[in-house]
Design goal:
Length: 406
């Protein structure tokens, strides 16, 4: 068969073959054009976009999963000596792991200095009250959780506090799957904290559960909630009821979104409070605790009674003050330190190409890639080359069908 003959045959067949050719093109092109959000790794995310009342972008993500730590589980007996509480060892190797130690410190301070004027009991924080506990629920949703315990002993209150190593969290969207259980007279809390010389310098946004309260009530406060001369600042506080008849003894996702203008609080994705007054401004720590000082705010615990903050996981999206400083400096010096950030999808001008979500995810703690702008840019720029692939495939099939290749 001559070339001319084959070409003639090809042209003659064109009308019927064209439809299958177009169909083939369309089907092979579709997967290239639409990329559905898919699970990815933090190393692939340039930034994270939150949902909720006001969407926000954050540059970093941390996830602490306490659900599968059976090898570290165990409930230590309370230490009845005041001094020994502060000196107690960590309760398991988990709290020596880099995963934990790089991010968290366990408090051992006491309230002998600067205690609230209404407090009626000495209180000491102890590493002995921070432990991994086996899940004993009837239909356990996890193997373990993290417990922060506070207990009233003969002549003092033993308490628990964990605080972030970093004090540079500046704007966050943080969430914990948690519950508060136990006796009346204690507080459990999740908050941002920046101390100050004077009361007025303190920057702090609190979630507080008081175990003496009705079980659906939560207090949210942008501190300080009172002045040096004892005046209450009512705008600083919002008292909210948990949605859907939930109680704080139920497992629920508690979320704080701290943005430059507001703090917003969610329970299981329902916004329950927002406060614009005294929104924290500067780099802060993240703290969780369980405590009581027998004062008016916490209430009194009866001797040997205890209360617990239990946390299955803690997740945080955040910007940090160090990062902004480092990025500015390295940009000025054209330092190679910025490169890893760029590789993660962050452009030199601070905008983000690879946008992820922890809200849309199918696996708690693992981000989904929402979109990758560099991929889109690359496809349209190198479009001619990339789109040749289905064309060539189609041509081959088409020619085969005409018998050209035979
Ligand atoms: C965020 O998105 C998830 C997944 O679509 C949804 O279940 C959740 O209700 C949303 N949260 C808020 C606060 O809108
Ligand atoms: C976090 O930092 C990014 C990049 O600088 C910025 O675009 C974003 O608005 C910041 N997020 C908040 C909540 O301020
Ligand atoms: C209690 O706190 C004070 C003040 O920080 C400190 O001097 C003292 O050593 C602490 N006591 C214990 C037992 O930790
Ligand atoms: C404690 O301090 C508050 C606020 O400053 C003040 O209103 C109250 O009178 C003080 N109480 C006592 C017992 O000193
Ligand atoms: C919130 O509750 C506390 C304690 O019950 C109360 O003292 C305070 O006045 C309440 N604040 C608001 C704004 O309702
Ligand atoms: C707590 O109990 C102590 C005595 O143990 C008492 O002095 C104090 O007034 C009580 N506080 C409250 C808020 O009931
Ligand atoms: C984004 O797409 C580009 C081009 O396809 C690719 O090189 C890059 O690895 C992608 N980035 C991420 C974070 O997926």
């Amino acid at each position: 068969m001559t070339r001319g003959g084959a070409l003639k045959k090809l042209i003659m067949r064109l009308p019927t073959s064209l439809s299958s050719f177009v169909l083939l093109l369309a089907t092979t092109s579709v997967p290239l054009a639409t990329a559905a959000p898919s699970l990815t790794q933090d190393s692939q995310c340039g930034c994270y976009l939150t949902n909720g009342t006001e969407a926000g972008y954050f540059s970093k993500h941390q996830f602490f999963d306490f659900r599968n730590l059976a090898q570290h589980a165990g409930v230590p007996a309370a230490i009845t000596d005041f001094d020994e509480n502060a000196e107690a060892k960590k309760t398991s190797q988990y709290f020596e792991s880099p995963e934990w130690k790089d991010a968290w410190m366990i408090g051992s301070w006491n309230n002998s200095v600067g205690q609230r004027n209404d407090s009626s009991v000495k209180m000491v924080n102890s590493p002995n009250n921070v432990y991994i506990e086996a899940n004993g629920d009837p239909h356990p949703a996890s193997k373990t959780w993290l417990t922060l315990r506070t207990q009233r002993l003969a002549d003092f209150q033993t308490a628990a506090e964990i605080e972030s190593v970093s004090m540079r969290y500046q704007f966050v969207s943080m969430r914990m799957l948690a519950r508060t259980v136990g006796a009346s007279g204690a507080i459990t809390a999740m908050f941002t904290y920046r101390g100050g010389q004077n009361l007025a310098d303190v920057q702090e946004s609190d979630l507080e559960v008081r175990t003496m309260d009705p079980r659906g009530l939560i207090h949210y406060t942008n501190q300080p909630s009172y002045t040096d001369d004892g005046m209450t600042k009512t705008e600083a506080t919002a008292n909210a009821t948990m949605p859907d008849g939930l109680e704080w003894t139920d497992w629920a996702v508690h979320r704080l979104d701290w943005t430059p203008t507001k703090t917003r609080w969610y329970v299981n994705d329902h916004q329950v409070a927002q406060i614009s007054f005294q929104t924290p401004r500067d780099g802060s720590k993240i703290i969780l605790n369980a405590w009581s000082d027998g004062g008016e705010w916490t209430g009194n615990m009866s001797r040997n009674d205890a209360a617990y903050l239990q946390v299955q996981w803690f997740e945080i999206l955040y910007n940090s003050t160090t990062e902004a400083v480092a990025a500015t400096m390295s940009r000025r010096r054209e330092d190679a330190h910025l490169l890893p950030i760029q590789r993660r999808g962050q452009q030199q001008d601070g905008t983000c190409k690879a946008v992820c979500s922890i809200d849309q995810t199918t696996t708690q703690g693992q981000p989904m890639m929402l979109w990758n702008n560099s991929a889109q840019v690359l496809t349209s720029r190198g479009g001619s080359l990339l789109s040749l692939v289905p064309w060539i495939t189609a041509m081959v099939v088409f020619f085969m069908s005409t018998g050209f290749m035979a």
